[in-house]
Amino acid sequence: MLEVLQILEGEVNLREETRVAEQARPALPTEDHKLQAIKLSGTQAELKERVDKVIERIRELPDAEAEFGKEIQLLGMVSGVMNEAVEILGRPETGSPAIAAETEAIELLLQSKRINPKAGGGGGGANPGGGGGGTTQDSALSLVGSGMNDKEVREDRGISQATGDAGFVLPEEFRAGLDEYFNRLERGSSRD
């Protein structure tokens, strides 16, 4: 379980490095970009190997196919997508196809990390085995990162305050300071 989280974190970091490499591509000589992409491909191959080892370890458990069939299948899909990413990065391609493959691997890893929130989880104290009542999806999503997307499109959804639409009001101490600042500017420009 911990290994899958660490692989997830590694994949998120790899995707961020891929984005940075793609953004830097126009400024780099072609050979430097190629070397960077091949390095990223190697990192992806290492993460794929780790996933394959997790699958092997799960299969070694008693009744593995019956108990963990879904997880084995999901991790097998992760391994396949990571293999595609290895090939894409090795071309060298750090653009949308590589980032899409890495994102798909992340999404599959997140699916493999979801647990049944109704099932008890570790912990002690007054209620042993009564872990949290949420899912692991939220905490894992925090690892996804923000990235830097210069083609990002944001739209204003027109949400207004529920307490009124009086507009933005600065605190008094800021207003006094701004008034003084603009007064000095006006006095300075009138001397010219």
Could you tell me how far the N terminus lies from the C terminus, measured between alpha carbons in angstroms? 71 Å
- Helical/strand content category: mainly alpha
Q: Spell the H/E element sequence.
A: HHHHHH
Report Rg.
25 Å
Largest sheet: none
Number of beta strands: 0
- Number of H- or I-type helical stretches: 6
Mean pLDDT: 76
Walk me through the structure:
With 192 residues, this protein is mainly α. The protein has a domain at 2-116 and 136-141. The protein is 64% helix and 0% strand. It contains six helices and no strands. The radius of gyration is 25 Å and the shape is elongated. Mean pLDDT is 76; it is low at 115-149.
Brief summary of the model shown:
With 192 residues, this protein is mainly α.
Index terms:
192 residues; 6 helices; elongated
Task: Lay out the secondary structure.
Blueprint: H1 2-24, H2 30-59, H3 64-90, H4 96-113, H5 137-141, H6 172-190
Helix pairs in contact: 1-2, 1-4, 2-3, 3-4
